[in-house]
Design brief:
- The complex is a heterodimer of chains A (332) and B (288).
- Chain A folds into two domains: 2-72; 85-327, MetI-like fold (Orthogonal Bundle), CATH 1.10.3720.10.
- Chain A is 75% helix and 1% strand.
- Chain A contains twelve helices and two strands; from the N terminus they run H-H-E-E-H-H-H-H-H-H-H-H-H-H.
- The radius of gyration of chain A is 26 Å and the shape is flat.
- Chain B has 288 residues and is mainly alpha-helical.
- Chain B contains eleven helices and no strands.
- The chains are: A mainly alpha (332), B mainly alpha (288).
Chain lengths: 332, 288
């Protein structure tokens, strides 16, 4: 409070009183004013940077939008030789691989968050929590290598034949068993987004007042019933926010996916098949684009990805904020 | 009758309780498994190839054996240092603004924007810098460093803000009451006072960008040799790992494992080192 007043004094008084104030005082206000405006400029510079990003990408991709119009997003054909560019197969690849990732990562992340926050003794919670946090620190390219040389052969030799035998009547699990492809990308992405979902879920669980748990236990609930009633149901919207944030991370993930997804622009019902995502096509083709139109079309793919991920992240942050607000000051 | 029903229900509830808690335990260990698998495998595959030549020699051509990644490590050093020169001051200034002057609605817009910048996919940052810099001066260290700086910026800003907010207001008031101008209170009292925390934030940001590949693919591009000038393409460890890993030549793949081990080692060292520093410091403060 006092600080706010002080700030207003520094900023507002400086100007009109500058001429009448004694010299020393003027210097003080001058320094403060310069400092304040430098900081303000840097902070608004961040907003400027984001706007410049949108503007520049729009400018660079404009030729593609002029050439193809809105059809760009629903055309599955991507052929640099004939000059026909459509983004649908990449959108499909991004959406499906991210959904596989979320479906696999959500139960694991919520499980680990519940375990670490509610059940585990400290001596166990600390190392397990450390392992999960460190998953977020491993660079994407390293996951990609691991996916390409370890996960893909494992899938080809064990998991894919097994899925094919047991669930092969579904079109999802038919086709050539290559190892790399959509399924491998989804699994790698799941590993990469687990720490994101888990750490935000932990924050959410931490914000739920202890009294909720005590009330449930006091009424005779078993431990699991307590977790279900007091923690999972209360924190549901926070878990949803965490999941959307994880989804946002999966959508934009590039290197790991590029190495394991097989990089072929087509739409296939089989999860065993190769695919291409919006991010991976950029990594593969951007530096080697043959024509200006291809470069513009690639940038348009990038712009689409950019806008989608801004949108997804805005929603997620809004949801998480609401949860924070609801329990602000009520935590333990 | 009623009693029996209750006891049946009780047993059912207990069974569900045990099964569900067991499932939670299983999921928790499942989450820790990938870390052990990934880091263990990299260690096993990479350790044999991390030798003197790896750190000192230039890469050999495809099909030849031997050589190292010295240029890539030097390149990563150059790029990260340059990125710090831009990203840390800008990020710090933004963070200080948000913590010291950031009240009201405009500040929450700024905070939101910084958060959004954190979530921009790194490959998009690469395209942006391509259009901003590479189109004009070509693949260069400048472009690569700019891309990394943009990724560092929001991380540094948010960590600076969080840490400066922990300083009690009485410290600020004491400084102002002595007649110091506000900028001196901030730069001479507040910033030195939480330097340890700020440096932790910088280290985590460095650890993050040191492993970034996607934004460098078409900004710094890559180089088989040492880069002699900042406006030339420059090699970096992650991009070299990527190029070697997908080359298919066994000896290059072998070296990319070594590169991955060095990269993971560096990132863990930065993460673990700063964390344990912070932990030790906190413990000392509590004791005294």
């Amino acid at each position: 409070m006092q600080l706010e007043v002080a700030e207003k004094l520094t900023v507002k008084q400086a100007k009109p009183k500058a001429s009448s104030a004694p010299r020393r005082k003027l210097d003080i206000h001058f320094g403060d004013r310069v400092f304040y405006y430098i900081l303000k400029a840097s902070a608004w510079g961040v907003v400027g940077l984001l706007l410049l990003m949108v503007g520049l990408l729009l400018d660079m991709s404009w030729p593609a939008f002029v050439e193809f119009g809105p059809k760009f997003l629903i055309n599955p054909e991507w052929n640099p030789w004939t000059g026909e560019f459509g983004a649908l197969s990449f959108v499909y690849g991004t959406v499906v691989s991210s959904l596989i990732a979320v479906a696999l990562a959500l139960p694991v992340s919520v499980g680990v968050a519940l375990f670490l926050n509610e059940l585990a003794p400290t001596w166990l919670a600390r190392p397990v929590g450390f392992f999960v946090e460190m998953l977020a620190a491993i660079p994407s390219i390293v996951y990609g290598m691991w996916g390409l040389f370890v996960l893909a052969p494992f899938l080809r030799n064990y998991l894919q034949p097994f899925l094919h035998e047991t669930l092969g009547f579904l079109p999802l699990f038919q086709g050539p068993m290559l190892g790399y492809g959509m399924l491998a990308a989804g699994i790698i992405l799941a590993v990469m987004i687990t720490p994101t979902i888990a750490s935000i879920s932990r924050e959410v669980f931490k914000a739920i007042p202890l009294g909720y748990r005590e009330a449930a236990l006091g009424l005779g609930a078993t431990r699991w019933e307590m977790l279900k009633i007091a923690v999972l149901k209360t924190g549901a919207s926070g878990i949803i926010g965490a999941t959307i944030l994880g989804l946002g991370r999966a959508l934009g993930e590039t290197m790991a996916v590029t190495l394991v997804i097989g990089n072929k622009a087509h739409i296939s019902a089989s999860l065993f098949d190769t695919a291409q995502t919006m991010a991976s096509v950029l990594a593969n083709e951007y530096a080697e684009a043959d024509s200006d139109l291809q470069l513009a079309a690639l940038t348009a793919v990038g712009l689409t990805l950019f806008i989608v991920s801004l949108f997804i992240n805005s929603i997620a942050r809004y949801v998480v904020w609401q949860v924070d607000k609801k329990y602000a000051g009520m935590g333990r | 009758m009623g009693l029996q029903a209750t006891s049946f229900q009780d047993r059912k509830r207990k069974a569900i309780n045990i099964a569900a808690l067991g499932a939670v335990l299983g999921l928790a260990f499942l989450a820790a498994v990938p870390f052990v698998l990934v880091s263990g495998y990299i260690l096993v595959k990479g350790i044999g190839s991390v030798d003197w030549a790896f750190f000192t020699e230039l890469p050999k051509g495809p099909g030849e054996t031997g050589g190292g990644m010295a240029n890539a490590m030097a390149g990563t050093g150059v790029l990260v240092t340059m990125a710090c020169l831009l990203g840390i001051p800008w990020g710090m200034a933004t963070g200080i603004y948000l913590s010291e002057y950031g009240h009201g609605k405009t500040a929450s817009i700024l905070r939101f924007t910084v958060d959004l910048l954190t979530s921009v996919p790194s490959i998009i940052v690469g395209i942006f810098v391509y259009g901003l810099i590479v189109v004009h001066i070509g693949y260069s260290s400048y472009a690569g460093a700019a891309a990394l700086a943009i990724i560092m910026l929001p991380i540094v800003a948010r960590s600076t803000e969080e840490i400066m907010k922990l300083i009690p207001n009485s410290v600020r008031e004491a400084g102002l009451a002595l007649g110091l101008p506000r900028w001196k209170v901030i730069l001479r009292i507040l910033v030195p006072g939480c330097m340890g925390g700020l440096v932790t934030g910088f280290m985590l940001a460095i650890a993050r960008v040191a492993g970034e590949t996607a934004p460098l693919l078409f900004t710094a591009f890559g180089n088989q040799f040492y880069s002699t000038s900042l406006d030339q393409p420059i090699a970096s460890l992650p991009v070299q790992i990527y190029n070697f890993a997908k080359s298919g030549f066994p000896d290059l793949v072998r070296q990319s494992w070594a590169g991955a081990l060095v990269l993971v080692g560096l990132v863990f060292f930065l993460n673990f080192g700063t964390r344990s520093l912070l932990y030790l410091k906190n413990r000392k403060e509590i004791k005294s």
